[in-house]
Amino acid sequence: MKMEEMQQGSQRQRDRHQTEQRLLKAASELIARDGFQALGVNALAKEAGVDKVLIYRYFGGLEGLMEQLGNQLELWLGDGHKAEIVEYPSYAHFAEVVLWRYAEALRKSILLQRLLAWELVSQDPLIHRLGIARSRAVSQWFLRLGSKTPPPPAGVDVAVLNALLIGSVHHLVLRATSSGDFAGVDLKLEAIWERIRLELSEVIHARLSPP
Amino acid sequence: MKMEEMQQGSQRQRDRHQTEQRLLKAASELIARDGFQALGVNALAKEAGVDKVLIYRYFGGLEGLMEQLGNQLELWLGDGHKAEIVEYPSYAHFAEVVLWRYAEALRKSILLQRLLAWELVSQDPLIHRLGIARSRAVSQWFLRLGSKTPPPPAGVDVAVLNALLIGSVHHLVLRATSSGDFAGVDLKLEAIWERIRLELSEVIHARLSPP
DNA sequence: GTTGAGAGTCACTTTGCGGTGACTTACTGG
DNA sequence: CCAGTAAGTCACCGCAAAGTGACTCTCAAC
Q1: Cα–Cα distance for residue pair A112/A166, rounded to 1 Å
Q2: Contact of B46 with B56, CB cutoff 8 Å
Q3: Which nucleotide does the CA of A10 lie closest to, via C1'?
Q4: pLDDT band (50, 70, 90) for residue A2
Q5: pLDDT grade for B1, boundaries at 50, 70 and 90
């Protein structure tokens, strides 16, 4: 009789690795469902169906668990990193495609959204570190996708324009899952997101296409 | 001897109105300094130098106090509502000026920033209601300032463009006070904000000025 | 003066949190 | 077969939170 098959019933299954994975998964789900505010040892242990003492034994506390969760950060972006690198006819085309890829990945990853939102309110140094890791992962993703692209036109403040564009995407996505609307626009409708995509494209080409 | 002048020392000053104002002011300062997470009856009472039972007696609890604080919401926007209504040569000029006014008012009002950020993470219906009141106040402010302005050019998705622009302003201001940087841009520098203003202006005119 | 109402004070209960010590159970290496 | 180690369970501690009851003090109306 193999060990994996027996289930004594009186106690849990005695598999450290599986318990760790349970905890990490439960943490993800808890954050995605209720946000970082709800992440406590008691709630997490209950969500995972595991005793809370194991959080301390295996991870040294919530901080350690979060740190380990953060290591899977690039995984939070979903399959976006599988995107192939193509050659774009212009920087504007590149920006348009990559920005929209990012927007779609962000919309799908509630976990990443929760982290972005929490970065705006928390002063916890751990969250700050997670934010730095997130930022680095994202910009590397951008860099990789843009490795074969023409340079942007001169005379345009590309850094600031990028910040504006990414900022608007962040804010709209975050408002979509929090209140569902923003500035009179109903972000729950899929048709609106198509209009957002179009308008982003217009803005990018209006600013970045050579006149 | 007037009642207002005596100060017995053994007990507080026996002035209900002043105590209420103390509490409201303390709540503002507490939120501005430490955020909504730090807003509890104990912390608030300590900040105001007042017994916490008075929060329940005078406001019926934190919710009531917050509600009353929310009524002063348009006051949070600072002296922005004192701005005179002028006639703009074009919709683009109007958008440029008003958007930047809003950005500057928002940068100055940490209280409003805290509310905006908290709306993104909280599921509290009270915060949701506050957000609706805030949104209404802001859009009325926009409407008032734009009462004498030419219509926007046809063929442009003005609603979505506005959401994008306001969203980017929101996000950059919020990141400025939380982490201080965004997308590789150092939001602590005043020079950067000048570049942001310029780039916003460029985007607005590129999209809204008739070609 | 007396008294009643309202402002302020204090002690208390309850509840949920993070965190820990001591225990039981099961597997493993010798 | 036995002993040690590791997984899991349980009860508990200290603490800070929200909220409440009962008290004192002060003034004003009569």
Answers
A1: 14
A2: no
A3: C25
A4: very low
A5: very low
User: Contact at 8 Å (CB) between B28 and B111?
Assistant: yes
A117: pLDDT strictly greater than 90: yes
CA A42 to chain CA mean position, Å: 25
Pair of tokens at residue A61: 């506390």
Cα torsion through B32, B37, B41, B47, rounded to 10: -30
**Would the CB atoms of B198 and A121 count as touching at under 8 Å?**
no
pLDDT for position A12: 64
Residues 58-97 of B with CB under 7 A from strand D: 61-62
pTM of structure: 0.93
Cα angle B115-B119-B125, degrees, rounded to a multiple of 5: 110
Distance from CA(B121) to C1'(C7), angstroms, rounded: 38
The span from the CA of A143 to the CA of A111, in Å, is 23
Look at B121 and A119 and tell me if their CB atoms are within 8 Å: no
Q: What pLDDT does A84 receive?
A: 77
